[in-house]
Amino acid sequence: MLKRRLLLNLVLLFCLIGLIVFIFMPKPKAPAPPGVVLAPAIHEDTVRVIRIERPSHPTLVFKRQHGHWRLTQPLRAPANPLLIKTLLSVPQARSDRAYAIEKSALPRFGLQPSRAVILYGRTAITLGAINSLIQRRYVLYAGKLYLIPDRLADLPHSPALAWVSHALLPPGARIVAIETPGIRLQRKASGRWEAAGHSGRVSPSAIDKWLAFWRQAKALRVTPASRSTGKKKPEIRITLANGRTVLYQIVAVKPSLILRNTQLSADYWLPPGITAAIILRPAPETAGKVGFSERS
């Protein structure tokens, strides 16, 4: 009986030793992805300015300001974060190899004249033609030719408005006043909100949800402003804590709600579920005028 117990203890001991060795044994490193990184020295967290120079198109300039990217030339507006992320991924794209190339061969790959030149700070990556067989783009970096996945498609040649954020308000916006055809809402020095011009009482929870909606609302698409009929359109005026005023005109409510940013001459097409009632006023309760504190 003692021998069996001793044997069992030895088996358990060896199992425990094996488990400890397995846990602390160095794990084999995953094999490195094939190919070479285009520009390993360019890291997205160190880039502050991106410039896209394009033949026959205005130069685009993006700057990181307070942790957010803005388009600063030829328009001034918050940049679309998804497109900026794609732009920042280009230097880390992989090519099967780096190819030596003579200057006389550059036109053959669409690199002279180039399709576009992207400057990350002072470091330039030149975009060339697309290899139609494998849908990869020829690029020139540090005098070498690379063939990388075409993540940008036609974006380098797109109008500046295509790079603008679809959000109705800039990142981190703090609303201190908002005026629509349905209500006027203003934050007082005490921190309390006062609503006026509304036919019913506005609850604190309703106003919290309404302000949160405005801070998070995004358009499905942004297009150049359509031709104006000259008729005065109802307006939405939003004042932010930094003193900036954002102005929208209500262009249409059916079949889609369209708001026009007059500063950008751009129309913001809202999703079908967002109606004029949601945009113009929070949900009412009972008659009267009320002051309250913002919770968010």
How would you describe this protein?
With 296 residues, the protein is of the alpha+beta class. The chain has two domains: 36-163; 175-293, no CATH class. Helices cover 17% and strands 32% of the residues. The protein has four helices and 20 strands. The strands form three sheets. A nine-stranded antiparallel β-sheet has the order 5-4-3-2-8-9-10-11-7, with no helix packed on it. Strands 15-19-18-17-16-12-13-14-20 form a nine-stranded antiparallel β-sheet, covered by helices on one side. Strands 1-6 form a two-stranded antiparallel ribbon. The longest helix is centred in the N-terminal third of the chain and has 23 residues, at 2-24. The radius of gyration is 29 Å and the shape is globular. Mean pLDDT is 83; it is low at 286-296.
Question: What is this entry, summarized?
Answer:
The protein is an alpha+beta fold and 296 residues long. 17% of the residues lie in helices and 32% in strands.
Question: Which keywords apply here?
Answer:
17% helix, 4 helices, 2 domains
Topology:
Blueprint: H1 2-24, E1 36-37, E2 49-53, E3 60-65, E4 68-73, E5 77-78, H2 81-89, E6 94-95, E7 99-100, E8 116-120, E9 123-131, E10 136-141, E11 144-149, E12 175-179, E13 184-187, E14 192-196, H3 204-216, E15 221-224, E16 235-240, E17 245-252, E18 258-261, E19 266-269, H4 276-280, E20 291-293
Antiparallel strand pairs: 1-6, 2-3, 2-8, 3-4, 4-5, 7-11, 8-9, 9-10, 10-11, 12-13, 12-16, 13-14, 14-20, 15-19, 16-17, 17-18, 18-19
